[in-house]
Amino acid sequence: MSFPKNFLWGGATAANQYEGGYLDGNKGLACSDTITDGDAKTPRRIMIELANGERKFISRFEDVPAGAKAVIDENTYYPSHVATDFYHHYQEDIALLAEMGFKTFRMSINWTRIFPNGDDKEPNEDGLAFYDAVFDECHKYGIEPLVTIAHFDMPLNLAIKYEGWLSRKTVTFFENYCRAIFERYRDKVKYWLTFNEINFLRDYSTLGITEASNYAKQQQAIYHVLLAGAKAVILGHQINPEFKIGLMVANILFYPETCNPQDSLKLQEVERNFKDFYYDVQCRGFYPEYKLAEMKRHDFKLVTKTEDAVILKEGTVDFISFSYYNSAVVSTREDATKTGGNQLAAVKNPYLEESEWGWPIDPTGLRLCLNRLYDKYRLPLMIVENGLGALDKIEEDGSINDDYRIDYLRKHIVEMKKAVEEDGVELLGYTPWGCIDLVSAGTGEMKKRYGFVYVNMDDKGNGTLKRLRKKSFYWYQQVISSNGENLD
């Protein structure tokens, strides 16, 4: 066994980090459009306007107080407004992907291009036409679009007017959005993902809720997201039974620090809360007992409707997709040395190297993740994010020698290959993150680059936006052409 002939080699992007053109084509404001730049030391911020009209910046989005709303500050740089400008470069960029030999291109549709306010009665034709052009360009080169419906974003108007996903009305607005894109692109898109890294939806910027640290608010909002995802699966299959609709979870592999049973109990708690719950609901169609017990301990009961149980059960996904960048260590020791990594503070692993941004590098962990997920759910898998954020340097001759990125990806593909060949895992595809350089979601930086293609832009949006092929561009080209056999 090796990778199947129809294996989906490609790369991944997100509209709010890559697309730009934030008001072009009658697009509305999204929550992501209110998030400033930042860096590894300075958190990204959001300006809020309080009920009394006072404005101020905050850096903890879960602390947006009730009655407040996010607003744009005209004197502040917002990376999503231009990003790396796929909106005006999509033909050039897709040609570069085709040159690498991409079989699939993971991208997201910007909800506010289709429904600028979220609660509009009719979709925006300009937005629909833009994605028509993008998908047509992909198909010209034989590239299969893999489309994320909601990628860390939602219309700002829904956050202000309805408090985002806290309102059941947002489920209906999302269903309207899905219907519009499913019907429009029923013959152009086969593979869909509902919510990007659904287990990272937790504050004003992603859920649209104020006081997001409030347990009851957060759990009710997440319930509505899961219900909306199930409705999307049911609706998609009604519109085109050939659609393949998957979930997307940020999959970090956790290890216990020691064989102390208390560390293993802590590990179980972390895994259930961080990721297992989201897999269980979307793959099995109901809330697991451990989650119900947790809500009971918090003296909280979800507000539901009688038909919801059937919707969750009938709206389970066709396949599982996930991101994998790093693993993490769980410990009960209060004095354990901490490290960073993918918006998660964890215990330092002495057996692993770390990236420039402090993320542990653990290729073997990817094989473990693939096996655990396939053993548990018996659904096809897809790795839709994986990669190394690093500082790239343009040499005097114009070359960009990112051997460190090649080394990272090669080691992960080797473990991916073992999972398929030796363990029998059913793997549909692999789309490394940020195949063309884009803005970092966590820090708002440009200098933290992931792509095979370099984009001339700095952390403050200055640059020509010129595209340059890195060394990894040619390496990945041969990986794809050999179907994963040539990794040298």
Tell me what you see in this structure.
With 488 residues, this protein is of the alpha/beta class. It has a single domain (8-30, 77-257, 271-326, 357-481), classed as TIM Barrel, CATH 3.20.20.80. Helix content is 36%, strand content 16%. It has an eight-stranded parallel β-barrel, surrounded by four helices. The model has no long low-confidence stretch (mean pLDDT 96).
Strand content: 15-25%
> Into how many domains do the coordinates divide?
1
Number of helices: 14
**How many DSSP-defined strands?**
19
Rounded to the nearest angstrom, the radius of gyration is 21 Å
Judging by the overall fold, what is the CATH architecture? Alpha-Beta Barrel
Structural class: alpha/beta
Main beta-sheet annotation:
8 strands, parallel, barrel
* CATH class label: Alpha Beta
Mean pLDDT: 96
CATH fold group: TIM Barrel
Shape: globular
Keywords:
488 residues, alpha/beta, TIM Barrel, eight-stranded parallel β-barrel, three-stranded antiparallel beta sheet, 14 helices, 19 strands, 36% helix
Short description:
It is built from 14 helices and 19 strands. It has 488 residues and is α/β, with parallel strands linked by helices.
Task: Lay out the secondary structure.
Elements: E1 8-12, H1 15-18, E2 46-49, E3 55-58, E4 69-71, H2 86-100, E5 104-108, H3 111-114, H4 125-140, E6 144-150, H5 156-162, H6 169-184, E7 191-195, H7 204-207, H8 215-239, E8 244-250, E9 253-256, H9 261-284, H10 289-297, H11 308-314, E10 319-323, E11 327-330, E12 338-339, E13 346-347, E14 353-354, E15 360-361, H12 363-377, E16 381-385, H13 403-421, E17 427-430, E18 453-455, E19 467-469, H14 471-481
Parallel strand pairs: 1-5, 1-17, 5-6, 6-7, 7-8, 8-10, 9-11, 10-16, 16-17
Antiparallel strand pairs: 2-3, 2-4, 12-13, 14-15, 18-19
